[in-house]
């Protein structure tokens, strides 16, 4: 009997598939297949990509797609390139052939919207600076993180739109009341109220009729939904008389989904489910979309149900296809002697890994040896994933699609199967491993004399946890103490040189959880970055930068050799001015008159706020103000790191762009010619999008666990700082665990408060008391709702009871005297 490998990484458990007959899945229409090509002219789609987009689950659906592709090819609308890759033959003819008939009735959603909860909509500052900070596993500077904003496109400037004109754009849901349609044909995003959206969802492509403006912003009605990117929703199933309704988890989704009994497939009341919408009503007066339960995750509120629901909500895979697992199992463990002979051998050089204590996928190692001239040779050795994962393999296609590993609170959703990520490619101690290395000759002052890049073989002598390495840095006399202390000293010199060149030091704080065996959080804490973390980070930054510079300088004129770069643009001037005004409210001055000294100004601000209540708010908003780092073939440089050229080379086990960088570097080292730009740029865009999706899923899992943590602490008092302000509430972030909740403005004791948007503060009408960002507050946990992933606080009120009772009576009297006040619509429970 095979012994279980205790070093295996935590895997995403498989959610149970929907119960019932799989043959009941809806057929795939030819028009649905063709629209994917029509809406993406010039783009190549393989059969597997189409299957993923269309959510294929049955053999019948797979046959539908094959038959439609053959028919469309025979009709001359699609061209077969190679294997099973197809593209549109003629975009213009295709558009004309599928032009929708005129005179189609517009839909009107007459259904009563969800009851107001006082939580819908974005915060004013959130609108300006973006979403919550990303918390994810990384080895580069904390500044370098994926964009989490709503999707945007570059728009050309055109004339002001006239009422009646139609344009095409992409839907970005803002709240359950309205969305924005982003279009290259419009100077401004067009607001569309949800009763005019024709059930379009986030990311869908629509044709829109403009109908004037409102509050200075163009408004319109959706005429037709041209492409539905993912007609699936995750939500809680409610049963009424044998039929079901799914209420979506995403609070921006403005409609429920009706599920007939025959489409429930055994799902029961109260379960979290994934529902695929099979029918969008043409005449929606009183009608809802009709769907079918695809997966049941279990009763809402349970850990497995909620985490699996988050995975489904963001379209994350639950398992690898069988052919991918089989292919990974078929790769031999032994390294042929012929392969060793073609590599530079580092097996006799001191080598070790430093990773988190619970890590299983070791994708980087460091080696160190002294040269005859007294300098030090430090090798950054990276797992040679592309030696095992070759173009054309099922493994390669799956890695390209996933593009990144996803680190949820209680599990990893890996980019590569476990046998590769934790076995073949992982640089485990006391094993020969194939690597792709960047080797540097440095002196003890951090001066770089020489660089070498190439394929290697290593043998790691020791696996360190960060805590063990930190002990040696702090003076513990043990194995490899001298080597680690020397490397740490050199790393600090490299870091100082970066900041002298203009690197920016803002970082977000990473939240970590201690979970019990059932996944329940025992406590939450903020991860502390010490010298051991920073040392590893500096050598990874050095490798990434020098690889990018090497490829860029291979050719001294345009077109340069194609490479995958990680770029980060300089911040937008207007957003920077807004941030400077915001920082000024806390007494911090930013001089923006000299762009060359901008990084110095930001670094000075970062130092000023350390240890102050507003530290996290200021640093988080500073990062949101910056442009977002993305992947591209355009070597525009990295503003935050102050590098002219930067790539991602050091994490190929968990990032597909690193695999692309490895292949390109190997190709050029072997004397290969320049690689075509367009396919690489397409993969860069895909990887950037997948990275954003992963970051959003990670954020959702963190929020869920924070709510779960506070659920057992109702009535407890915590110290926090004001982290957000809206007309209906103020958000407070608890200092010790970064859990954020809301205090309703109407419940703030001692006065009635109004939002002063221009100054980011609440002002008391009578006392003129001011509440603003960064103010320290004592809060009591009032409620923690796992289903909504929301936390409610109330401010500590030490006044006498008779004063509080009198104020409560006055507030209630004031509410009931308002014009049109109705208790059942005030956000509270309906009176019966």
Automatic annotation (TrEMBL):
Biological process (GO), any one: mRNA catabolic process
Keywords per UniProt: Cytoplasm, Exonuclease, Hydrolase, Nuclease, RNA-binding
SMART domains xref list: RNB, S1
Chain intervals for the UniProt region annotation (Disordered): 1-24, 93-128, 804-832
Residue ranges constituting the S1 motif domain according to the UniProt record: 715-796
Catalysed reactions listed for this entry: Exonucleolytic cleavage in the 3'- to 5'-direction to yield nucleoside 5'-phosphates
EC number annotated for this UniProt entry: 3.1.13.1
Entry GO CC: cytosol
Gene3D superfamilies per UniProt: Nucleic acid-binding proteins (2.40.50.140)
InterPro entries: CSD2 (IPR040476), NA-bd_OB-fold (IPR012340), RNase_B_OB_dom (IPR013223), RNase_II/R (IPR001900), RNase_II/R_CS (IPR022966), RNase_II/RNase_R (IPR004476), RNase_R (IPR011805), RNR_Ribonuclease (IPR050180)
Molecular function (Gene Ontology), one example: RNA binding
Positions in coiled-coil regions: none
Major location (coarse): cytoplasm
Pfam families the UniProt entry points to: CSD2, OB_RNB, RNB, S1
Location in the cell: Cytoplasm
Family statement drawn from the similarity comment of this UniProt entry: Belongs to the RNR ribonuclease family. RNase R subfamily.
Function field: 3'-5' exoribonuclease that releases 5'-nucleoside monophosphates and is involved in maturation of structured RNAs.
Protein known as: Ribonuclease R
Organism per entry: Hymenobacter mucosus
